[in-house]
Each structure stands twice: as structure tokens, then as C-alpha cells.
Amino acid sequence: MTKAGIPVVPGTTEKITDETMALEIAGQIGFPLMIKPLPWWRKGMRLVRDYHELLPSFRTAKSEAMNAFGNDSVYIEKYIESPPYRIQILATNMET
Question: For residues 48, 50, 56 and 59, what is the CA-based torsion angle, rounded to 10 degrees?
Fold first, then answer.
């Protein structure tokens, strides 16, 4: 979507592997943010409002993801509070 110029919520496209990386990403995108497990299901998702919540939430999300999915990969994205609307797009690669 970014290649097509479509605005997206700021966040990571690669898994967050450690706490240092989580802190760096949080500093780049700001708070509030969401920590999401690889399968992007509700299990393991954490809303984080400030730095004090970040590392405990990161650890919990990774642990829950491992227990639920057998994979502790998590991603971080900006949490948009009270969006005016929500649109989800499912797309496939249309390049030839």
C-alpha cells in the first residue's frame, strides 16, 4: 500500500526481536501504540500508553503469543484513538 501512495498507520513491518528494538520503535512512532502478535489475532495484543507500560506489555505479548501460537513474534503500530472511520483493505499483488 505504501508503494501505491496509500496512507497507512505507522508501525513495523518486521518482527520486534528484543526490548531495545521495542524502545527504539516506540520512540519513533510515539504513544499510544499497539503490540500485536504475528498472527494479528486479539490474543496477545496490548495497548501501551507510555514508556512505563512498554516493556512489561512487550514481555506479556510475546509470552502470550508463544503460548497461543507457538511463535513469539510481535509487531508494533501506532494506536489511533477515536478514528473518524475504519477501513480495512484486503489486497493481492497485482504486478505482472
Answer: 50
Cell numbers placing 52: 512505563
pLDDT tens for residues 11-61?
A: 888 889 899 999 999 999 999 999 998 765 667 789 999 999 999 999 999
CB 74 within 8 A of CB 83: no
Neighbours of 20 (CB within 10 A): 9
Can you list the domains of the chain with their CATH numbers? 1-96 (3.30.1490.20)
Classify residue 44 as left (phi > 0), alpha (psi -120 to 50) or beta. left
**Residue 81 grid coordinates:** 484513538
Question: Rounded to whole angstroms, how far apart are CA atoms 68 and 76?
Answer: 18
Task: Give which of 89, 90, 65 is closest to 75, Cα–Cα.
Answer: 65
